[in-house]
Amino acid sequence: MKNILVIDDDISIGDMLEELLTKEGYRVCRAYSGTEALYVLSQALPDLVLLDLMLPGLDGEELLPRIKNIPVIVVSAKSDVSNKVELLLHGAADYITKPFATSELLARIAVQMRNAHTPKAHPELTFKDLRLDTLSHNVTLDGRNIRLTRTEYAILKLLMHNPSQVVTKTLLLERLSEDTPDCMESSLRVHISNLRKKLREAGGGDYIEAVWGIGFKMKE
Predict the structure, then answer these.
(1) Rounded to whole angstroms, how far apart are CA atoms 78 and 58?
(2) In angstroms, how far is the first alpha carbon of the chain from the final one?
(3) What angle do CA 44, 47, 52 make, to 5 degrees?
(4) Sign of torsion over alpha carbons 58, 64, 69, 73
(5) What is the spatial distance between Cα 215 and Cα 220, in angstroms, rounded to a whole number?
(6) Which of helix, strand or coil describes residue 172?
(7) Domain boundary assignment for the chain
(8) For residue 102, which of 9, 1, 24, 49 has the smallest C-alpha distance?
(9) Does the 3-116 domain belong in CATH 3.40.50.300?
(10) How do the pLDDT tens digits run along the chain, 220 residues long?
(11) Residue 150 phi/psi, 5° resolution?
């Protein structure tokens, strides 16, 4: 089930979006301000964000560049073309103006979900001197190949896709089940421990850190 984060301080619009998206089979989480959205994103990574611009505190235009590696559809009453162009150039995947037809919004969401699973022109993920090739499945650290199990590779790939954000254990297990159904909650910590050990032995340092009670992230 795909996860969508709705960031909008208008409760009635948020309720409408949550009801619509839930009926379409999406899991929905909510944030009512830019600051709250940053906290929600630090706890779990959605597959897509619906972002209003007029938010209390940290507004949508300030929040947008802080959302990394997740498609963002701006949903705003602002209809100025120059404003749309500016946001699209600075990270928004799409822009829809309020009021909107729900069928159009659902179509735009479906396009972004599909695009997220389309192979990119540059399939290599990088973090410091760590390289992961999503086509060949080769992982190298400072030019040296690292042999990983299928589950270890899947964990590292997910963490490297979102290196600055914490990935919760629940989300890890949900995403891993698509590629490695043998990974259970009881064995997840063992897989991550083995992965951290292999990276440490190859590079002499820690590349993954545990965030107590929440999950894991790449170590800055």
Answers:
(1) 17
(2) 30
(3) 90
(4) positive
(5) 15
(6) helix
(7) 3-116, 124-218
(8) 24
(9) no
(10) 789 999 999 999 999 999 999 999 999 999 999 999 998 988 878 999 999 999 998 999 999 988 888 899 999 888 787 778 888 877 899 999 998 999 999 999 999 988 765 544 457 889 988 999 887 888 998 888 999 988 899 899 989 987 888 888 888 887 777 666 566 777 888 999 999 999 999 877 889 998 887 888 998 8
(11) -60, -40
HSE-up of residue 217 (Cα within 13 Å, Cβ side)? 17
- Dist. CA 21–CA 102, nearest whole Å: 10
Residue 106 · residue 50 · CB < 8 Å: no
User: What pTM, to 2 d.p., does this model score?
Assistant: 0.59
Bridge pairing between strands 139-141 and 144-145 = antiparallel
Q: How far apart are alpha carbons 218 and 50 in whole angstroms?
A: 26
- Look at the domain 124-218 and name its fold: Arc Repressor Mutant, subunit A (1.10.10)
- Rounded to whole angstroms, the Cα distance separating 9 from 45 reads 20
Given this chain, do its domains 3-116 and 124-218 carry the same CATH topology?
A: no
Instruction: Give the H/E segment covering residue 6.
Output: strand 3-7
Q: Exposed, middle or buried by CB within 10 Å (0-12, 13-18, 19+), for 53?
A: buried
Report helix angle 102-116 to 11-23, nearest 10: 60
